[in-house]
Amino acid sequence: MDRILIxxxxxxxxxxxxxxxxxxxxxxxxxxxxxxxxxxxxxRLALTRGLLxxxxxxxxxxxxxxxxxxxxxxxFAAWLARFDLVLAFWPDPAGDLAxxxxxxxxxxxxxxTAQPATAPAAAHFCAPxxxxxxxxxxxxxxxxxxxxxxxxxxTDAPGSPQIAIHPGSGSPTKNWPxxxxxxxxxxxxxxxxxxxxxxxxxxxxxxTRDAFAHLGxxxxxxxxEELIVAIxxxxxFLGHDSGVSHLAAACGVPSVLLFGPTDPATWxxxxxxxxxxxxxxxLLAISVSDVxxxxxxxxAAQK
Length: 303
Known about the structure:
By secondary structure, the chain is α/β, with parallel strands linked by helices. 31% of the residues lie in helices and 17% in strands. It contains eleven helices and eleven strands. The protein is elongated.
């Protein structure tokens, strides 16, 4: 296997749950050229770690030809034909994408749905690899970063825990009420002299950032590699069903994740250092004391 192309769309979390499959392909074919079409920003996490050799943005106009129902442009078809393996996770409800492949008897084309049908999600994206004779063990379904030296963002004094908080996600229905986050932080600050790293992105309004400003250091819209350094410097991560939570799990940081409408069996990182709190289909059923108790337990276990 000399050339491999992976088609996988989505946001940060969608990419991170695909990392175990990328790692398995790299381990099996270390000299292969592996190219990826999808979230170009997230995919740099794999490029810099040697899992990928090239990245193509999912927003490039050329990909639309795969769904047009017409023959592909000759140069695009010739480029696709160069790959020994094409592994596709892009949505293809009508089969328009799949009908183009394989380009020759020598090309292997594997397709799996973009929506996980197996729990955890990482197992779903590893499933097609069984057709190549590759099996990913359960203990490798939560990818772990080789981390840079921590310290750049660490501000806590000895014995005073630094806790990373991500109060957002890709959907308001997956978010715990802001007032509960603030009450939790206030109580942890009192009980543990905690300092906080407040992680926000473009989805969080300025009012959210301002509400946490007095509690610690802001990590707003950081580049992913800087965010990894920041999270890895913390003793605990608290968040929702989000890409940042998958990032924290990949950093190996003990995490408490709050779930409501989504299924943690599918979407929570499958790792022993990740604890999930779910009290039904809405996050409103999760109390401040529920989260504080779990956070206190995990902090105490590190002493």
